[in-house]
Amino acid sequence: MMNDPRRRLTEAVAGRLEAGAALLRRYGRRAQGNGRTLILGGVRSGKSRHAEQLMARHPYVVYVAAGLPPSDDDPEWAARVAAHRARRPVSWRTVETADLAGALREARSPVLIDCLGTWVSRVLDEVGAWQQEDGWEARLDERLQTFVDVWQATTVPVVAVSNEVGSGVVPPTVSGRIFRDVLGALNTAVAAHSDTVRLVVAGRALDLR
């Protein structure tokens, strides 16, 4: 069993994810867990860990995983998902879905959404953005607006994690630019209807609201 390549990969990814945990425990501040909180950050910034710490006070949390489910076709992604799962409290319930609005609308307990970036990627694929199918913009706008409306109306404590995409260079591909523009606009809309907005940089959380 110890020589299982997938297990070794999972352990390696878990080690990388754990590397910034000490800094987050030292510098992360625990919110009251009420209202709507948006956590922004770059890759390996510690944003997911910070979001999990904010929800740690609740005995029961619905963890909404918005990215693609793990599969045998991408063992590295499967290892990342496994590492994230392993560090969640056993009392949390994980829901893997692209219907973020539906999951949040039905919630009766605190919710953690991780993350809006992977969700946007899934939605862009589902509405035909990559192939530039007719009407994809209207279908996309409907999906995004529905989520923002539900986010604004929710009454349960909710934390959403998202990628900050405004600090890099202009992507060289059409798909990259679409993703950046759509996610940037979504982050702005969600932030406008959030009680708390934080930016996580190198394991340190900065209050934006």
UniProtKB/TrEMBL annotation:
Please state which protein family the record places this protein in: Belongs to the CobU/CobP family.
- State the organism's lineage: Bacteria, Bacillati, Actinomycetota, Actinomycetes, Pseudonocardiales
Residue ranges annotated as coiled coil are none
Any single GO molecular-function term of the entry would be: kinase activity
Listed InterPro entries: CobU/CobP, P-loop_NTPase
Lineage top rank: taxon: Bacteria
| Top EC class for this record | transferase
**Keywords (A to Z) from UniProt:** ATP-binding, Cobalamin biosynthesis, GTP-binding, Kinase, Nucleotide-binding, Nucleotidyltransferase, Transferase
What's this protein's function?
Answer: Catalyzes ATP-dependent phosphorylation of adenosylcobinamide and addition of GMP to adenosylcobinamide phosphate.
The molecule here is called Adenosylcobinamide kinase
Q: Which reaction does it catalyse?
A: adenosylcob(III)inamide + GTP = adenosylcob(III)inamide phosphate + GDP + H(+); adenosylcob(III)inamide phosphate + GTP + H(+) = adenosylcob(III)inamide-GDP + diphosphate; adenosylcob(III)inamide + ATP = adenosylcob(III)inamide phosphate + ADP + H(+)
Q: What is its EC number?
A: 2.7.1.156, 2.7.7.62
